[in-house]
Amino acid sequence: MLKEALLGTHQDFTEGDLRRGIVLLAIPMILEMAMESLFGIVDVFFVSRLGADAVATVGLTESLLTLVFGVAFGLSMSTTAFIARRIGEKDPEGASKTAVQAILLGLVVSAIVAVIGITRAPSLLRLMGATPSIEANARYTQVMLGGSAAIFLLFLINAIFRGAGDATLAMRALWIANGINIVLDPCLINGWGPFPRLGVLGASVATTTGRSIGVLYQLWQLSSGKHRVVVRPRHIRLDLSVLWRLLKVSITGILQLLVVTCSYLGLVRIVSIFGSAAIAGYTIAFRMIIFTILPAWGLSNAAATLVGQNLGAGKPQRAEKAVYRTGFYNMIYMLVVSGAFLFFPAPLVSIFSSEPGVARTAVTCLTILGFGYVAYAWGMIFTQAFNGAGDTLTPTLINLFAFWVVQIPVAYLLAIHLSYGPSGAFTAIPVADVVFTLIAFALFRRGAWKAQKI
Questions:
Q1: Residues 329, 383, 42: CA angle, nearest 5 degrees
Q2: Looking at the predicted structure, is the pLDDT value of residue 230 above 80?
Q3: Which end of the chain is more exposed for a tag (fewer CB within 10 A), N or C?
Q4: pTM for the whole thing?
């Protein structure tokens, strides 16, 4: 099965052994998400050699990019749901039309983000609490936000592949993008060989270049005619009926992720009160957290695809069974990661920084967050099941309560009012995760998602 998962499969995921279907989808999706997380890990690894201000620049820009990722994730969730439903209904022509409308929507949104990022980068960094020395690196932020089209298209086209069940293609696109980024990062940061020495700016150029080449690979595969979704010249036109239905589901999907990402911005703003070392420490810990959570999102995406395709095929009970089985696998994985964060945080952090203040904050963050990982493993699966069914409103409301009614007030209370500092802000995260999972489980059990129409 491992070979088949890596090379690609044409299996019908509405039939046959469910465990086999989960493995064939989950392995490439996990590797895809791991590759996505490597962008941040590689950047921090090389940039950390430039000092706390450089790392803080990456961290604050990453905070701004979470808004971009939130919109991209929101659009991609609805895209996956629509594509999976059409594939389950055996409607490849409808899937192709949806794919084109999703890409057009992503291009429009990315153009808006690029204009704002290029013209307002210094102001955005100041808004996030940047010091003058951090603000001096604003060109890094300009390139990252200015190249947002590559981010949107990479997310959206991979969502098309995942919804169709062609998860291997999404994995390969991230492999290509990351391979280029890994090679270019040290060359452009340090000025190796014929490359100019760009410092922290080099990291943004390398990342944007890698993502852009990954997008070219995706477009080639979409037009090749070899896979479940094929885009032909006749499909490249505006279809208002499909676009409107996609947009309606996407709006709540975008709000869902923006609620989460804005709460992260709130946490960063609270942590920034305690200086550059605290921001840098949180940045390193956050990148490590993303590195471990994104593979878990890979499993969650497998659940979303299985839910969408099986609802399209009229098999809601098989969809529900897939969610519980995938949730169990995710729990086991996150339990292992939690153990690593609880028992070996210092050696993990030492890979990225040896500055005492930075390392201390990162170790504290990893240790505290390790306590909430197992609960969050189930919460991720349940919310992605809702999304796969096309019900993006329910997870939005869950996120709004858990992360804004619970997480931000608790973080402010502990960090500032009770003077626990950054550790107080970090403690609010596992508290919110437990609340998030309990609510998601209760609503999933009610089963209204099975009747969702898109």
A1: 70
A2: yes
A3: N
A4: 0.83
